[in-house]
Amino acid sequence: MQDNGITPSQTVGPFFKYGLTPTGEYAWNDAFTHSTLTPDVTGDRVRIEGRVFDGDGVAVPDCMLEIWQADAQGRFADPQDRRALPNASFRGFARCGTDKDGHYAFETIKPGAVPDPDGKPQAPHILVAVFGRGMLRHLYTRIYFSDESGNAADPVLELVPADRRATLIAVREAGKSIYRLDLHLQGDNETVFFDV
Amino acid sequence: MTFIYPTDSNKAHPLPLSPDYKSSIKRAPNKPLIPMRHTLSELTGPVYGHETVREGDDDLTRQHSGEPLGERIIVHGHVRDEDGRGVPSSLVEIWQANSCGRYVHVRDQHPAPLDPNFTGAGRTVSDASGYYRFVTIKPGAYPWGNHHNAWRPAHIHLSVFGHSFVTRLVTQMYFPNDPLFPFDPIFNSVPDEKARARMVSSFDLENTQPEWALCYRFDIVLRGKNATPMENS
Q1: Which residues of B touch A82 (CB under 8 A)?
Q2: Looking at the partner chain, which of A4, A19, A191 has a beta carbon nearest the beta carbon of B221?
Q3: ipTM summary value
Q4: What does pTM read for this prediction?
């Protein structure tokens, strides 16, 4: 008999690719891609890329990242966001498996500011869920942007020890719309993960 | 209406580090997770419905020219929250090994045959009451390299979205009375016995279809207990 507790998480294991991120390599179609872009979306188009490493600094080739974000006006494509609806078919969700060298990349737009529960603006950010073999539950982290002055007053970054904040901030390549952020699941440069 | 999800519910999940599962040793964070209040970013989530799913994606036995080998089964149940409310319009994705315990994934090279009529991936969307249903083949157990003579109990991987980014769940559905349970470090990574039992489907004779397929029921319970309205929403 089942009680009312939640169903526990289990790892995605090493063999999820053909089901969740087939990208043309298997006889199955992709429900999602690594891009949130739609033809009518407004905002600054950006590429966010990096690599995922384990506690030995070894690249993780069988990881899956999912992102969730607001549109350029800071509004979510979800009816639970009762503010004005987004202005496009933008959905704000994307999924990307890492390659053999641990690389990931997302094509998206830079989100607008989203209020915190007190109505204070959060700096533009993207939520990330990290799945992989060896990970019994996915981990939650955030991506911020190095060229946003709002980072200094962001209420979530303020919770993070100052010497670890850089693990959450994607660095813009000079003159380009490309931001880089590596994720470290463990170790000296361990990415900040949140208990949500 | 937006809800606050108590983090206490997460105690049902495995801890990130579960040393008996060797792959977790270098991939679990050493530093504590940082608690934070849920903001609109965490409380909202991707909304995907029927446009994501093609007709027939919920029947893994009809994706090729012939029928796959193995024991045809029905897997069905409800996606619910902790208060027992059905979660409608939730995307459910599954993937699994074939009846011989072999995945089509290129990295699975253990000596068991592939089935040209079985890929092992499916998708559906829960209906207005949270109900979902798949037709598939019962997966086989398979060996893995975690320790000497290690075998995974037969399982189907499930990925469920729910109504916010913090209700996201990836889990595995097991079959009742599997003799491999006591020896599987992934199953036993869930510390609480009652919580482990929630990952085991139940045999459903009532919905077994005569002359055609055995049925298993698997209810998926997402966070949502004591849900309270969020101000400023």
Answers
A1: 2, 233
A2: A4
A3: 0.95
A4: 0.96
